[in-house]
Structures are given as C-alpha cells and as structure tokens.
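Q: What does the assembly look like in three dimensions?
Context provided by user:
Components: two
Sequences:
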Amino acid sequence: MRNRDLSFWLFIMPAIVSLCIVIIVPFIYGLIYSFTNWNGIVATEFIGFNNYITLFKDAEFRASIWFTTKFAVTSVILLNFLGLGLALLVTRKMKSSNFMRTVFFMPNLIGGLILGFIWQFVFISVFGSIGKSLGIEALTGWLSTTATGFWGLVILTSWQMAGYIMIIYIAYLENIPKDLLEAAEIDGASSFQRFRNITFPLVAPAFTISMFLTLSGSFKIYDQNLSLTNGGPYNSTQMVAMNIVKTAFTENKMAYAQSQAVIFFLIIAFVAVTQVYYNKKREVDL
Amino acid sequence: MKKSKRKLYIIELLGLFLALLWLSPFYLMIVNAFKTKREIFSDVLGLPKELMTDNFVKAFSDLDFFKSLFNSVLITVLGVGVIIIFSSMAGYALARNKSKISGIILLVFVAAMLIPFQSVMIPLVSLFGKADMLNRPGLILMYLGFGSSLSIFLYHGAMTGISNSMDEAAIIDGANKFQVFWKIIFPLLKPITVTVGILNVIWIWNDFLLPSLILSDSNATIPLKMYLFFGQYTKQWHLALAGLTIAVIPVIIGYFFAQKQIIEGVSEGAVK
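A: Here is the predicted structure of the complete assembly.
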C-alpha cells in the first residue's frame, strides 16, 4: 500500500479519527484551557500561569504528589521482588506449579474497585477482630491512619499486580537455555552463582518492561484508591489521579483541575521516558 | 539427588501455602457473605453456622444483576469488537506501507499511550457533552480511541511474520484490498487477535472511572452498580460481601474456562 492509495487511508482512518477526537483534540484543548478561567462550559479570559501558580501553593496537591511518589516507589520495589520470586517459584518442576500460576494471577482479572472493597473488609473487620482476640494492637484501626492507609494500598496493589509481573518474568525465565544452567552446575557453580551470572542478566529486559508497567501503573492508580481509602483520613492518602477527579467533578474547578492534569501528564511522561532510556542503556552495558 | 528432591518438596509446600494466602481474601469474602451481621462480628474466620442466602437475594436484586451484567457484556463486546476491527486494519495498512508518513503515524499512536486518562478526561467529557455524545455510542468511540494504540502496535508487530506474497497472489486472483485483508490476512492474525481481545476485555470489563462519567444509572455496568451498592451498605458487610461475591463470579467463570489463553495473551501483550 502506498501513500497515494485510497485504500491505505481508508484502512487507517477510523483509528486515526478516534485517536484525534478522544485523545489529541481534548489534550490540546486541555492545555489551552489550563491557561484560562474555563468553568467546563465557557472560558472568558486568559489568565496566564495563574492556575499553575495556585497549583504550586496548593498544599493538598503537593501532598498528593508526594504520597503518590512514595507509593509508586514502594510498589515498584515490592512488586518486582514479588513478581520475580513468584516466577522463580512456579517455573520449578512441581506438580502444582500450574495451579500456583493460576492462583497468583487471578486477582489481576478483577477490577481494582471491587478488590479495594474486598480488602477494605479484610483490613478493617478481619485484621480488627484478629487483633482484638490476640491482643495485637498493630492490627486494629487499619485504614484509619495515614500509615495504615498507605500500607493498605501497597498491599492491595502488590497482591493484585504481582501475578502480572510474575508472568512477564516467566516469559523470560523460560527462554533461558537449560543446557547453559546445567553446564554451569557441572562446572560447580552454586545456585546463587547461577542466578547471579546467568539467570539475572538474561531476565534483565524483563526489568525494563515490568518497571515501566509498574511505575507508570502505580502513578495512575485511581480505582483502588477510591474503593480502599477514598483518600482518607483527611485526604492524606489521596493520590494525584483522585485529586484531579475530585477538583474537577466535586469542586467544579475545571480549569484548575486541568492544570493539575497537565502537570500529571508531564510527570508520567518524564518517568516513562527516563526509565526506558535508562534501562535500555543498562541492558547494553550488561 | 535425594536431598534436592526433598528441598523441592519443601519449596512446593511453601508455594502452596503462599497460594492459599493469596486466595484468602476471596475465602473471607465468600464465607462472610453467608453470615449474619452479628456472626461476622463474633467469628470472622470460620465457616458460617448456617447459610444466609437472604444476603444474596437482597444483593442480587439491589445490584439489578441481570441488567448490569447485560450492560457490561454489551459495552465490552462492542468496545472490544470495534477495537479489533479498526486496529487490525490500521496495523495491517501501516505495516504494508513502508513510507515515512506511515512510520510517523505509528509513532503518534505509540506516543499517545503516554498520555494518562486523567490528562484528557475533563475536556473529553466537555467536548462529548457538547456533541450530545455522553451515551453508549460515545463511550464505544472513546474505547476505540483509548484502546487502539496498544492494539495497533501489537497488530503491526504481528504483521512482520506475514509475507507480502500473500497479498500479491490474492490481488492477481482479482481480490480487492478489503477482500485481501478480511479473507486472507485477518485469519492469519488470529493469535494476536486473541491477545488483543483478552487484554481489552480485561480492561473494559473492569473499567470504572470513564463509564462513571458517561453512563446514566440505567445503563450502569457491574463496577458502577457495585460502587453505588457499596455506598448504600457501608458497614453492612454481610450485604456488601454478598454483592462483591456476585460481581466477582462472572470473571471467575471466564477465567476457569480460558485461563490458558488468558495467561498466554497477557504474557504476549506485555512482552511485545
């Protein structure tokens, strides 16, 4: 198909039109609106960087960025450990390894909203009554403090996403030539040495993928946040995505919410680009 | 060898324990959905003394379950359907056209994946509102816009395995471009279509925020209805858990029948 063929354009047109209407045009509009006093219907004047200036003074927004960053970094570390650990576990020759794969992956198929509600019950009622009957203070009052809200969210998303990351690592682990590992074993390499010198470098590309997915995924989390803590107590566990939704649709400050959304985009894009760049570089070095 | 066999045995036991731990939230959800409010309070871990099916009857009718199931199925099937049709066509055309423009268009689609939903959400809702498109057809169009990037990328990648001589032979036999694609190429793309389908079904079925901004209550999908339902019964865990159990069941049934394809599809989609 060449550029002058009508069929080329007919084939790609529906996808391009939808991309423009749904993403590109709203994105550009949003960028423009963020410099105005837009109220969702009309914008009467350009106010320059006013929204952005207010934004940097907005303690709640800054807190949400900080909370999201802490959450994302913690989740990425935990998820990659868990994912790789589970993958190493289920790729061993065991009768039940298929069953384990199925189980570990299962939470991934269910929406974050529903899982958040289930875990709300686990944290509040189950933890609470175990804590009470065993006299463990630390298990009571979960989700009512910022710290337990934070760890609640980390536990929920790690449990939900670990199976997904596991699958990515499995794909790479299964591609490692068996004779390579066997040869190393015959040569007397310990299981740790085999992992360090053969397995680890060969699954390095999986780090790129899973770190990219988990990092940008954790930055964008909304459903779990809404259903598990709803930002509470006192908005202290509110992440950026939720802050934007609330500013726009509860407080009706459209232009201001849009300036938050632009900053949000810049953060996500920056994270994604640096990460892919850095990981590609490291892979070559290995 | 005997020692390593025993070691493997211990690892398997640990793994099974971990798997049970992984399932425990579902266990807790199901057993407590059958209890009374008082029993949940007195014994949260054990099996229910008697099965309170009343919880489910109430949750089932409050969730308007068959209607929300129908709404979810409708949105998911239509959304995934249009994504498959138009992304496969675009992926094919972009792969067969080696020009610079084609490369740039693919790059635009891939770059669009960097834009998070919240960054376009507000103007999107406003624009669609002005066009009177805050309804199901509008939602399907949005799913095509948000879903096509990854799907086109996957189809484009899969096209490298299909030789151009296929197209040429069919053209010589008198087929037009559309016939070539739908009769010859599309069937060959079936493995990647399964992957694209699975990834998009998981996404759209569970999507909450976008449909919550678009759909009216009467068109609510399962997650939307679940949100309203949960808000109504906060702290009435026996009812809330029965509702959650009902909401989870369709997914578990689907997973039971297609777990191999689902795991392979997700793996394929992530690693590409």
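Follow-up: The two ends of chain B are 38 Å apart (CA to CA).
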